[in-house]
Write a structure and sequence with these properties.
The chain has helices at residues 21-40, 57-69, 90-95, 118-123, 126-139, 154-173, 195-202, 211-219, 223-236, 250-270, 291-298, 309-321, 433-442, 457-467, 480-500, and strands at 8-14, 47-54, 73-80, 100-104, 145-148, 177-181, 205-209, 238-239, 274-276, 302-304, 329-338, 345-349, 364-367, 379-382, 388-397, 402-412, 425-429, 448-452, 470-474. With 501 residues, it is an alpha/beta fold. A hairpin with a 6-residue loop joins β11 and β12 (345-349). α6 (154-173) packs antiparallel against α12 and α10 packs across α11 (291-298). The structure holds manganese (II) ion.
Length: 501
Amino acid sequence: MKAFENFEVWFVTGAQLLYGGDAVIAVDAHSNEIVKGLNQAGNLPVKIVYKGTVNSAPEILATFKAANNDPKCIGIITWMHTFSPAKMWIHGLQELKKPLLHLHTQFNKEIPWNEIDMDFMNLNQSAHGDREFGHIVTRMRKNRKVVVGHWSDTKVQAKISVWMRVAAAWADAQDMLVVRFGDNMNNVAVTDGDKVEAEMRLGYHVDYYPIGDLVEYQDKVTDTDINALVAEYDAQYDVAENAKAGGKDRQQVIEAARTEIALRRFLKDKGAKAFTTNFNALHGLNQLPGLACQRLMAEGYGFGAEGDWKTAALVRTMWFMAQGLEGGTSFLEDYTYHFDGEKSAILQAHMLEVSPEIASAKPKLEVHPLGIGGKADPARLVFTAHEGTGVAATVVDMGNRFRLIVNQVDVIKPQPLPKLPVACALWIPQPNLEIGAAAWILAGGTHHTSFSFALTQEFMEDYAEMAGIEMVVIDKDTTISGFKKELHMNEIYYMLNKALM
Ligand code: MN
């Protein structure tokens, strides 16, 4: 698909010359057929490029070095058609910096019971060749995804597809700039962290900018620019009476458009992919930028409120993975609880900044006072998220490592909120609020989340593997005693890991 058309994944087949030239020719032909089949199946978002068979350590090293140096290449798929002695993979794997997927498949689907002979056995050896390869990858402590099954199986292709989307988002994060307007807000602990470690580990870079830099951009926005954008609002949304042309709060919509234009230009000029705001630092802005944040998020800019750069980066990354999939992705915040037994739920919102990508119906553009920030009444899109299952995720800094916390959640329909005119979602965390929220708190999770209807736990797991960070999952099988044990074990694992590194 278009969003990923500049990327490619390399397919590298392991073999050896022991079985003679004919075997290598057959391996090559079969690999070609597999790659062609995968590309033509129409289930993969990224094109696979077959890079031939590798039969020696120098060939492997050269191929992996080339992959590192090719910006189009976002990852490597390996497959051992025959036996491929894994010592020859050592130097290549030492060099490899791109995500790795080990496809444990074989060319033929079924055993040809009547025809099978020793020649066939020598050629079709992935059942043991791939185990040999897997051993060395594990021995070298290299993270990867292992996908098992026949390559024509749509379930196998779905797993490859998830990994490809994550690899694309991983590539996208490696040169990501997160613009942080103002610094961390109000002594909040969970939104802060080690930005140097984040760049080393997760790829992205966080830069502070004074809000005055944005104000300079605002001053250059013309009435013509604003009129065009406001016309777009009028066409795209239901507009509340007071926000319509001639309405008493129309000026607030105009000011919101001014900020949106300035912010978009600013981010573009800096080459930024994500940003954070800070409602204590709005000098020179007329109102809290709600509408602008909502609309920019829907365009793919990561957003985190109150200086939360880790969430801003994660929102961008999850949006990037989800491109072209149904459902939408957004920044959200745990707002308030509705206790009702097994149906106990969390109202997710923020002051204003929720992406219209997750809306159940056409958003309404409204202007209302906001009891915080001390600024003019901000414009915002008001809507309710549609129903469905999604993942809520956050990255926290544990001091010696980053921890990714993932909770599967079921979004349900809230009651109308006539006096709370903000965008929101209502969800029940799996397995229920009692365990879900307790586990989240025990894991040290934020009150901010990056949420997506389009993604599943598998995406987040692939991301944690690529980043080499800890991941804990809260889902329907979570128990508090089991979860605590996992946290304790992880503590030891990461302490030892750090000591050994
Ligand atoms: Mn917040």
